[in-house]
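S.,

Sequence below, as promised.
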Amino acid sequence: MFANLPNTPEVLHAKNELWQMMEDKYNELIADGKSDNEAVGTVISEFGNLDEISEDLGIKNVVSNKEDITRRHVTMDEIKRYLHERINYAYKLALGVLLCIISPAGAIFCDAIDISYAFGIIFLMGSIAAAVMLFVYSSIIMHRWDFLKHELCTIDFATTNYVHEQKEKYVPTYALLMTIGIVLCVVSFVPAAVIDELDISFHGFDMDDISGGILFLLVAIGVFMIVLCSSINNTYESILKLNSASTVSGNYVSSQHPEAKYITPEAATIMSVYWPTVTCIYLIWSFLSFDWWYTWIVWPIAGIISAVLNGILKKQ
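The prediction came back faster than expected:
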């Protein structure tokens, strides 16, 4: 009844007041010997039409002036199917990225064990071809869900609850995969550095020759985990933001709150690329200098600068 009304203190007060009135009536009917079904039916018949009781609740003007925006209702069954297909898509996407990253490793290993470069080229082209197939196939399969991005949609409270619970259950997995993925990317240079320093050999060939391949492999696994968990987590977030953020239903969970507003479009653009830019600077500096023991200083400095910029550029 209140889902599409504005999310204002006045409306929320009326919602809580009506809830109390319905609960009191229900308890009164149960005390009079009515069955549960009879009590619920009576309560709905007396209080179920907001147009009729809006004046008593003090929100007649809000209800009569409500902006009637048609939104496509997405059922719980549709959301469950979308989640299933989107999670499968996340695995294919992450696998495709992994294949692209490890594609040069074939040539490195071929050189290390002294076999023809042709096998390395075959591995390179085969990995990229497989990745492209995964990207194209997954995109075609997910095309039928494009309306979730391009149309105004809405989900009911039961569906919102379900998605929110699934998201909360995924939090430990998301945190674990993200942590391991980042650690693998950060320490990917360590095996190469250790092998180079200790001059390790194995079964007659120099391990230094394959250290580059090990680096690609560790980065690929790390990025696989990051892409996978980020994609799945973003799927939950995108579903929970289907409802209008200005309505009661659009503020059912914190992830549906309107995003921060900035003083100008240029400021919003700068802040949207701020952290990706910091990440690129960190990785480029670290891989070029191999001074990982102090390049981490980028993050606390970037955090301070971000706080200052947000204080200046956000609307007060």
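Residues 74-257 form one domain.

Coffee later?
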